[in-house]
Amino acid sequence: MIYEEKTIETIPVGPLGLIPLKSCDELGEKVNQYLIAWRHERESEHKSTIAFAGYQRDSYIIQAQTPRFGSGEGKGSIEESVRGDDLYFMVDVCNYSLTYSLCGIVNHMSPDDHFQDLKRVIAAAAGKARRINVIMPFLYESRQHKRSGRESLDCASALQELTSMGVENIITFDAHDPRVQNAIPLKGFETVQPIYQFIKYLLKEETDLDIDSDHMMVISPDEGGMKRAIYFANVLGLDMGMFYKRRDYTTVVDGRNPIVAHEFLGTDVEGKDVLIIDDMISSGESMLDVAKELKRRKARKVFICATFGLFTNGLNKFDEYYRNGLIDRILTTNLVYQTPELLSRPYYINVDMSKYIALIIDNLNHDASLSDLLNPTKRINRLLDAYRKNRE
To answer: Which CATH number covers residue 311?
Structure first.
């Protein structure tokens, strides 16, 4: 069944309200367009009842502002009534393209600034909403998810802070470590994998792939991403390999121990297409080292798939590796800010997640199960069958 055409079996929790913060403007508008289209097309005998008041709208976006004073301090405001609404706040904490003035100096917004703005707008709802949900694709402080010695536990603290403000559900994508949800065991927390979308967009662009264990392989660039790669490999019916990072623990550079070498564990990759799977590309150093090692082992094509493409050190190194034939494609999602330069690269594939987010919101608003959405195995199998049939 196509999810957007499903019949209505439950009444909505409340009128749907979508509040994308400025960091999520473009993604929020795409999600809004899907919701408008589905709900205008959807038929139900109950839609004229009072329980479905406000079900069909020209827009579900509720305008919110987060202006700053000259001192750099901010405030949040919501431009219309949200009493009784089922609200979905969307925020991209990685959107560094936004700026604000601090005593006449232009500052780029950091993840801390975005998180504070999210709390301000939630506070502006003043407890009047029926339910508050947060869609935060890149989980704030998710890289600081565990404590080593005398360190802060920022991600756990942030989750507790949100739930103390009345947030009932937190939807994130590919959390660095999903166990951080133990900090809020009585609240809804979903970490979503975009595996189906990666395969869908890769198969759109690459028409000559043989998706079987003789011709393709899934690679985890480190031991931390093993679970992700195992799931990906099992769904596609492929073999899996792994690199582990040998580090110099006597030295600290930029807050971490430098990598000495990448050691490979797995079967022969010669002549195979390989998918390197990870949650994010930060500087990209690890991914590029792994790609180089795979090409040295005579892999045919190298595809890099990462949910979040941050590219903190720019794109020059990726351009160089593409020119030298060390990488063939890079796939990242539009869940975080993408620079115009990135979108213009010939090797880059932009994986649009707006439809998936709209489906999640639509189901949550009806208090419907997310199980089928979170487990994409059936959809992936249909996609692979259609791809193979087109190649015959």
So the answer is: 3.40.50.2020
